[in-house]
Amino acid sequence: MGHHDFASLAQMVPDVSVFNAPFIYRDGAHALAATDPATSPALQQINEQLVEQGGVRIIGRIYRGARHISSNFEVKSPDDLAGKPFRAVPLELWVSMVTGFGATPTPVEVAELPTALMTGLVVGQENPLTMITSNSLHEVQSHVAMTGHMQSVLAVFINEGVWQGLSEETRTQITDVLDAKAEESLVWAQESEAELVAELTEKGMTVVTEEDGLDIDAFRERVLAQINGDFPSYQPYIEQIMAIE
């Protein structure tokens, strides 16, 4: 049993990465609803494939917060990133998203990220504010653009053989706890974001919001066009996800 980005299971079922796709969730609550193994049609379809092809089942999820762009210059639209080297998680979905940003995707492992930003190998990256803070990226980045392009949700998954070996009562107890923790993680992330913004501002970073001219619609339009072109098989799942109340 473990937890990680949904896209980490893509070696078994490529379309599972759709749950990490940018700009498909309205907010954190919508992200949790769309990744609920008990009620989400899209996740239930993917789960059937994971069980059949990989012997793994998603049984819960954890909300980490929205992902935002940090850079060493002001970013208000994709035009500001045009042609610039930007860190992409070494997964196809992230490379596609960064291309949609208008930047040049440059794969960098997370352990190497501070050095890559400091040396100029890349001039920007994207992550939840918790990661930006905990990795002291304020030391090598000057701005945060509050794009909220991804609602970062981690999948909790388990070996199918082990899962079926548990009693129904035990499985229910586990999923009840995971559902409660999912809700707790959402509340914690929402409450901590304002505190993290204040902390990063105090440390010298400039936080750019829509009120400052950040054009989130331009990012949404270009990124979704890139994702739809690169991953046409995602479309039915995205439609199901967006339809969830």
What does this 3D model show about the protein?
Strands 1, 2, 5, 6 and 7 form a 5-stranded mixed beta sheet that branches. This protein has one domain (2-234): Bacterial extracellular solute-binding protein, family 7 (D-Maltodextrin-Binding Protein, domain 2). Helices cover 44% and strands 22% of the residues. The two termini are 29 Å apart. The protein is built from 9 helices and 7 strands. It is globular. It has helices at 28-34, 41-54, 92-101, 113-119, 129-134, 160-164, 168-202, 216-230, 235-243, and strands at 2-5, 56-71, 85-88, 104-107, 124-128, 143-159, 206-208. Helix 3 (92-101) crosses helix 8 (216-230). The mean pLDDT is 95. By secondary structure, the chain is of the alpha/beta class. Strand 3 (85-88), helix 3 and strand 4 (104-107) form a beta-alpha-beta unit.
Average predicted local confidence, pLDDT: 95
Total strand segments? 7
Largest sheet: 5 strands, mixed
Classify the helix fraction into a percent range: 40-55%
Sheet/helix structural class: alpha/beta
Task: Please outline the helices and strands.
Elements: E1 2-5, H1 28-34, H2 41-54, E2 56-71, E3 85-88, H3 92-101, E4 104-107, H4 113-119, E5 124-128, H5 129-134, E6 143-159, H6 160-164, H7 168-202, E7 206-208, H8 216-230, H9 235-243
Parallel strand pairs: 3-4, 6-7
Antiparallel strand pairs: 1-6, 2-5, 2-6
Helix pairs in contact: 3-8
